[in-house]
Design brief:
The protein is of the alpha/beta class. It has a 7-stranded mixed beta sheet, sandwiched between helices. Helices cover 47% and strands 24% of the residues. It has 2 domains: 153 residues, Nucleotidyltransferase, domain 5; 57 residues, no CATH class. A hairpin with a 5-residue loop joins strand 1 and strand 2. It contains 11 helices and 7 strands. It comes from Lactuca saligna (Willowleaf lettuce).
Amino acid sequence: MDEIEGSLVAHYEKLRSYGLQLLRTNPGSTVKLDVDIMPDSIVHFSKMYICLKVVKDGWIEGCRRVIDVDGSFLKGLCRGEVLSAVGRDANNQMYPLAWDVVPVENKENWKWFLDLLLEDIAMGQGRGLTIISDQHKGLIEVVKERVSECEHRQCARHVYANFKKKFTGAEYRKLFWFAAKATTTKFEDIMKEIKLIESTAYEHLMKKKTNKHMV
């Protein structure tokens, strides 16, 4: 397979050519390649951002102003993370918008990704935009600084993953998801039920401002 496809390490040597090919076949796309130059002048890959022209045009023209951003680990020979932005189309299906390969998920790399993404989709400071994410501290800080006018909501699945570490049981799980999907009035009633069971569970969730910032 190495003879046919080449090694994964060797693929990194072709990234610049890959980026140029994307720009040639998809005019108007955004491809950014960042490298680190070592003291011995050897060039190492740092990060790469890709947003295809037809995809960003489709999001601007036909998708609701909601974006989910998240990171996923690369577990092969070359480690790192893929940062991605996914929208929702008119059929409420996932709409991949842009992606970025970085060495680690941190504030600096999230800023690099979001700066390029917001420029591509012409959202400026995020007025009218909703961003959904996990609770990564670096990302939360970047959204506050860079997209101050957007509505930033936390993914309920991530909120529940932390919640169930302290509060286990089927009753907590049932009430949590009822609350996450409820209207404002019904939400308040369900939260009262949680408070009756355990006041600290109620306080834990209210610190997340779940009635405004959880989806």
